[in-house]
Design a protein that fits this description.
It holds the Pfam family GldB_lipo. There is one protein chain. The chain is mainly α. 56% of the residues lie in helices and 5% in strands. The chain contains 17 helices and four strands. α3 crosses α5, α10 crosses α15 and α15 crosses α17. The N terminus is likely disordered.
Length: 333
């Protein structure tokens, strides 16, 4: 067979052009992603280094924003100052504090997670301002505070199953008090600033899709994070729920839930429960939130031209449901 040099040259040029285009795209993507630096303030170290009650008072007064945000109390409250000093000096709380410092170290991994998450939020919403991130120690009295400007993390609450002491929560909630849940939980709280809703619409459907959009926001911002960490279901629960979604949807339709505004009824499907026996004994709690996320995923599949920002700004749940074409069906992978 005779080798065609002209044809080979053309193919080589074409190949090089393709490589060049890919390189430009990758380069532009890198340039467009904003650089975000997160400095985590270790307030727990300042707190637990206090040696006297007057010193504790001074520290709390100098950090009024942290105290008011996390404890909802004035920093010069005498009983509160006394309690905080007791917390900082008690042998058992110091053991828990020492374990917290050992397990979390210098927080390099959490810092990188936050930097990646905040960069992704800023890519989608350029007006986003990076909030201050503060860690603290509360003796398991608090866990998280999240606002647009300040994030406070009580690290000891997220030590996980090996902790000397754990938050006073039932097991189905307690599993989410682990280090890997910190950033996904914070991002989901931050989604509230971008998740538009119609305050006049109090229906089951409106709540369901609000939760669904908050979960989708978290996944968009943390694309490499497992779904199990975003919604707090085990992998088995995710698989079983996916396979039984036709039954879940049929229940919602058969019971005429979609436009029901009853808050007590909605709490059964969206609130914290070990299961939703109204659907079945193995149906996990917060199933309405999962179903809302499923509808949002389906909506994005059916409407690829709708941008992420347009989705988050859409406050018409009826339109989203209709345009999702969701009826409990499972896509075959």
């Amino acid at each position: 067979m005779r080798f065609d040099y002209k044809k080979s040259y053309k193919m080589r040029v074409k190949f090089l052009l393709i490589i060049a285009v890919i390189a430009v795209i990758l380069s532009s993507c890198g340039e467009n992603k904003p650089d975000v630096e997160v400095k985590i303030r270790r307030f727990e170290r300042e707190l637990m280094a206090v040696k006297s009650q007057p010193e504790m008072l001074t520290l709390l007064q100098n950090n009024e924003n942290i105290v008011k945000s996390l404890y909802r109390i004035f920093p010069d409250d005498t009983a509160f100052v006394s309690h905080m000093y007791y917390l900082a000096s008690h042998p058992e709380t110091r053991k828990l504090y020492d374990q917290t410092q050992k397990e979390f170290g210098e927080l390099e991994d959490i810092q990188k997670e936050f930097e990646g998450a905040f960069a992704n939020i800023k890519s989608n919403y350029p007006e986003f301002k990076v909030p201050k991130v503060v860690t603290t120690f509360t003796g398991l009295e608090n866990d998280l505070f999240v606002s647009d400007t300040l994030i406070i993390i009580a690290l000891e609450s997220f030590l996980g199953p090996k902790a000397l002491y754990r938050p006073d929560q039932p097991n189905y909630i307690l599993k989410r008090y682990a280090k890997e849940y910190i950033v996904p939980t914070v991002v989901r709280y931050l989604s509230n600033s971008y998740n538009k809703l119609d305050p006049k619409d109090q229906s089951f459907l409106a709540d369901m899709l609000f939760f669904g959009k908050s979960l989708e926001f978290t996944k968009e911002i943390l694309p490499n994070t497992a779904d199990s960490l975003i919604i707090g279901y085990s992998e088995q629960e995710l698989t079983e729920t996916w396979e039984a979604q036709d039954l879940v949807w049929a229940h919602v339709v058969d019971k005429n839930l979609l436009y029901n505004p009853n808050p007590h009824l909605k709490e059964k499907y969206f609130g914290e429960r070990p299961s939703v026996p109204e659907i079945g004994p193995k149906c996990p709690g917060r199933i309405g939130q999962w179903l809302g996320w499923r509808i949002i995923q389906r909506y994005r599949t059916e409407n690829p031209k709708v941008t992420f920002q347009e989705l988050m700004a859409n406050d018409k749940p009826g339109d989203i449901l209709r345009e999702s074409k969701y009826r409990g069906q499972i896509e075959k992978e």
